Amino acid sequence: MADISSNFLGIKSPNPFWLASAPPTDKKTNVVRAFEAGWGGVVWKTLGSQIKNVSSRYSSVNYGGKRMMGFNNIELISDRPLEINLREIYEVVKMYPDRAMIVSLMADNDRKSWHELIQKCEDAGAMGFELNFGCPHGMTERGMGAAVGQDPEIARMVVEWVMEKATIPVITKLTPNVHSVVPTAKASVEGGTNGLSLINTIQSVTGVDLDTLVPNPYVAGKSVFGGYCGPAVKPIALKMLTTIAQDPLTSTVPISGIGGISTWKDAVEFMLLGSSTVQVCTAAMTHGFRIVEDLCEGLNNWMDEKGYQTLPDFIGKSVEKITHWEDLDINYHHIARINQEKCIHCGLCYIACEDTSHQSIHVERGHPYNHYTIKDEECVGCNLCQLVCPVEDCITMEEHRVAPEYVNWKEWQLRGLPLNDH
Amino acid sequence: MALKNNRLETHQYSEYFTDIHPPFETFDAAVIEANRCLFCYDAPCMKSCPTSIDVPKFIKQIATENIKGSAHTILSSNIMGAGCSKVCPVEKLCEGACVYNLMHEKPIQIAKLQRYSTEIAIENQWQLFSRKPTSGKKVAIIGAGPAGLSCAHMLSREGIDVTIYEKESKGGGLMTYGIAAYKVTPQFCEDEVNYITSIGGIEIKYNHELGKNLLLDALQAEYDAVYLAFGIGLARQLDISGEELEGVEDAISFIYDLRSNELSSIAVGDKVAVIGMGMTAIDAATQAKRLGAKEVTLVYRRTQEEMPCTEHELNIAKLDGCRIIWLASPKEIVGREGKVSHLVCEIMQLGPADSSGRRSPVSTGETMTLEVDMVIKAAGQMPYEHLVKYNKLNENKGKVVINDKAVTNVNGVFAGGDCVNGGKEVVDAVQAGKDGAAAILEFLK
């Protein structure tokens, strides 16, 4: 059995699965249930000045019969009195000293407020902080949340205030509502943050009610932009994570990955692209805390299968595999192959290729089943047919290099090689 | 042993004759199934439907909550899409061709989804088609069955004024009178006929029978064209001794009776033999069993390999507790005091293939005797040969001969459905009606 225990800046947890700062971590009852279920740690829902929430708070995107493919919220930071939160944090840490207890913070925008809040949380037993520079709604109008994360200089200033006071590790959580997460990440590292986490939620409108014409979520006939998360945002999160994991400065600090992680596979992908721990929220809000069992078992089995003993053995292994377009090998070419034994004649590959790609699939009409074959000379190896095929391994991509040597775009241009393939 | 009605308690009648394929109860249930559909291109299900319903499209429309669009997709190809969703042998048509079968997965429940959309359309009386302004042209149709109704609807949409002459007192044809009660209720059939005719421009004159109180010459004189869709009706006789005995009935009239009367008034025997293994034989056997017959035996002269009914239908009969004797051909019905007491069958074996391509049954010379008090004959139906010949229509064994466009040898007279094909599925008749309408419209140009 592999060892899936995690050590993030000295904060230990039995596994790398933390619950992200969100409703599931806003009180003792939930967090105790989460720890009973087996979660490695929590980021306690953001503490700051007293706020008030509205109703409703959530909305979601369903797709193809699957609910909660994307999820959006307009909740603010914790709406419970600070004293109660601190007391409960203290109690939970006593009950579960082996689990990570990170506290998310969003103090008012002055040094004194941050210092006071940090002191109180450290006194309550917090093991680390996560600075919420990302909340995209409600708090931004007050100069907090994403308003901090969207301006690298403000972020740097706040991180510096925090670092003056904090005696435990500090993680800065980045907002994705920027054209690049790197500038704020850099400023935060320069300001002294010990780690980074990303992504926070993405500003969104999940939909419009076609009867009332009011967008979701509904609050007395109105709506606001909410923070989008869930499986739908995973690819965006992975991209942003990679930019942090590749930057020479930001890659010097550990990263906690967040964004649509629902399964152990998602988690492994985040870790391969540089996350040391992963944070989960929507999947737990969809199915409850019990999902952690498969997260742990799946990760463990995969590590055993691949021969990884500990998490650092594979964390970041895929980071260098994402390169620049101009460095890709132009001589690499592959062609789709349809396994006629497996083909169920649904025609999805054909119509996708014929209507929207390169007309590379030949159809031989039959009754009732047509037969589909690849026109090798037309296939550009785009993968679309393989992606739409409903049968596992029915369409595979077969390597047919144009030439043996590696030639990238820069080289191609230098040599004046032909540009038009058709 | 005797024929007896009222064998069941009142609640048993409704229980035994309730919908054999229950509908989706909720939108969510329908959508879960709709979302399983792969939305195939040039879909095998669509190609396997005689009316070419765009199955992937209508299923996708359920998934997108466009139920009206879904119903329109179905009904524009098949105006009896609701009825067909209940009576089609889908296991050998659309569902049988579903690509999921090739993955050894359960096919999409196409019929059930089709029923979902079309029933909502009928319940809400959605008018999905509009009629063009009256063209002044008039067409007479003989028979308000699936072919006649389908033809009428298509013609009416084009502004033709249609009069349908129907020999029964209700429309729907075999849908109303010839199909097991647990598949479609009389009320449903009536609702479907009314829904089809609600487009306007279609008048149905009931109790008008060609050759009796109606003559083709007169219709030709009064109308611009005539479409013959009078179906088939006469049960094929076995031509064995004892057919006249009390307790011998043909399946068509047995089902007709139970479809037109209170179920409790229908008498069945204690021990019933059903001759044949087509869909009608299965319907007769299961209905007799459900009416309280103690023992029902299906007798078929060939084997399961050659049977005309689908395996799905056979299983319904088996699950209802019907017994099956393969390779047995009725030789004689024996009676006592004018009532059936025994059925004597020759034991058969399979010989070489006949003209249908199936191996033909050959007598072994041995016989077996079943003790029965009722014999239901479901050995096929005969075309109205006399009627066809009388009207000087080209015929083939009593079936009206048409060219590939529903045109008969008599100018201005068209034909389709069972009277042409000798008896196929409802869905085939609907397609024939569409072809007939197209040919008539071409003719009226």
Question: Could you explain how this protein is built, in words?
Answer:
The complex is a heterodimer of chains A (422) and B (445). In chain A, 31% of the residues lie in helices and 20% in strands. Chain A has 13 helices and 18 strands. Chain A has helices at residues 28-37, 82-95, 111-124, 146-149, 152-165, 182-191, 234-246, 264-272, 282-287, 292-306, 348-356, 384-388, 409-415; strands spanning 6-8, 11-13, 17-19, 41-48, 58-63, 66-73, 100-106, 128-132, 170-173, 195-198, 202-204, 226-229, 255-258, 275-280, 334-338, 361-364, 371-374, 395-399. Chain A has an 8-stranded parallel barrel, surrounded by 8 helices. In chain A, strand 16 and strand 17 (371-374) form a beta hairpin. Chain B is an alpha/beta fold. Chain B folds into 3 domains: 21-123, Fumarate Reductase Iron-sulfur Protein, Chain B, domain 2 (Orthogonal Bundle); 138-232 and 383-444, FAD/NAD(P)-binding domain (3-Layer(bba) Sandwich); 236-380, FAD/NAD(P)-binding domain (3-Layer(bba) Sandwich), CATH 3.50.50.60. In chain B, the strands form 5 sheets. Chain B has a 5-stranded parallel β-sheet with strand order 3-2-1-4-17, sandwiched between helices. The longest helix of chain B is centred in the last third of the chain and has 19 residues, at 426-444. The termini of chain B are far apart. The interface between A and B is medium-sized, with 17 and 20 residues.
Sum up the overall morphology of chain B in one term.
globular
- Secondary-structure content class of chain B: alpha/beta
The name of the CATH topology of the largest domain in chain B is: FAD/NAD(P)-binding domain
Q: Provide a count of the helices of chain B.
A: 18
| Mean pLDDT over all positions of chain A | 96
> Number of helical segments of chain A?
13
CATH class of the largest domain in chain B: Alpha Beta
Give the largest interface pair and sizes: A-B, 17 and 20 residues
Number of domains as seen in the coordinates of chain B: 3
**SS-based class of chain A:** alpha/beta
Question: Which regions of chain B are unreliable across 5 or more consecutive residues at pLDDT < 50?
Answer: none
